[in-house]
Description:
Blueprint: H1 2-16, H2 18-24, E1 33-35, E2 43-47, E3 50-57, E4 60-66, E5 71-80, E6 86-93, E7 96-105, E8 110-113, H3 125-129, E9 130-133, H4 135-145, E10 146-147, E11 153-154, H5 158-161, H6 165-173, H7 189-200, H8 203-209, H9 220-225, H10 239-242, H11 257-261, H12 281-285, E12 288-290, E13 297-299
Antiparallel strand pairs: 1-5, 2-3, 3-4, 4-5, 5-6, 6-7, 7-8, 7-9, 10-11, 12-13
Helix pairs in contact: 1-2, 1-6
Amino acid sequence: MLLLMAMALAISCEQCHAKETESFAKTPMAHALRKGSGEIPEANFKDGLYSIAIRKESGQNVYSATDGERHIEAPVLWEFGNGQMGRTFLYRLGSDYYESTVSWYSAIHGLDLTPGHRDRPRRTLDEAAGRKVDPAELRRCFGCHSTGMESPQPGVQCLHCHAGAAEHESTLLNRKTATPMPKLSRSSSEEISQLCGKCHRTWEDIAANGPHSVLNVRFQPYRLAESKCYDAVDRRIACTACHDPHNETRRDGAFYDSKCQACHNQAERGVRTCSVAKANCVSCHMPKIEIPGLHFEFSDHKIRIARAGEPYR
């Protein structure tokens, strides 16, 4: 039912919002999950006594692990991640689901340990192959990477973020006056942080549960809230002030200068302006940080005066 609803929404949303649906289809969020038959070159990974591999067989990606005597093999059911950083595999043995010990990383064009697996015990072949995922965690994974739980539709779709979209769509299909949806453009910075933080982690999530290390640079709403300039009401510091969720993320630093200058300009009383440069603000004030082993640099959303060699906090 949820899948059919999501598919109907995609169709009806496109009828009135063609520009947004067309551009959103190219975003990383729209490709946060795919079935295990996507294009990934065959690759191998050696982990002590264990060898892990990914290969294609009859159009299906197959995940396998061996210790030289025993052999574990299963088709990849789902691949989590849009491929910008990498993809992590979900497979099934019996009635249990497992997260792969290794993931595909685009930067190295090969396999390496999945986030969170570096310090996990791998004393047996079963432990070396993957980590068992309980139903509650599985729901959380699909809850962020797909739309609909009973029959997940790959990727984040309109229904995922727009509360009331189902009712809005239903009234339109029945030729009634459309039920209005909440206007996200009117939301405060904190309301947007809470919405994005459902998947990207809120300040409360990380403050209470961690990680309290460089690993939390991945969780942008938390880091943004740690900024001295963060304001829970001012929409100029909201996630959507810089990132249009219906379009691909801009990678050119100069694009964000106008976003910074919306507050940091000579006309704004009490707000300091930069004495060093007037362009490419984010290159200094939101430095790139690489988490060891993830082969990817994340923009630190804790806006600050960053100094070379300072510890991460």
